[in-house]
Design a protein that fits this description.
2 helices, alpha+beta
């Protein structure tokens, strides 16, 4: 599983500096099963919110995807 954090940052903030302390908004999106699904789901999630429908021309979205928990181990025998 993966956790998704969305950062809405001002265009004046470099992408490498966009994070918890510099974002205009920080949003926890729903968890997902893989990185590609996370990217798709998180954009759709933000678009479904009032914030997503009113993003300004001077703002951009940055998505952070973090692995959560311990991955399952399948097919290993001793």
């Amino acid at each position: 599983m993966f956790t998704v954090i969305l950062f809405v940052c001002a265009l004046s903030v470099q992408a490498s500096a966009c994070g918890e302390h510099t974002a205009v908004y920080v949003i926890k999106a729903p968890d997902c099963k893989n990185e590609i699904a996370c990217a798709k789901v998180s954009q759709a999630y933000l678009a479904s919110t009032r914030l997503g429908r009113t993003l300004g021309e001077n703002e951009y979205l940055k998505i952070r995807i973090e692995r959560t928990g311990t991955p399952a181990v399948v097919g290993i025998t001793n």
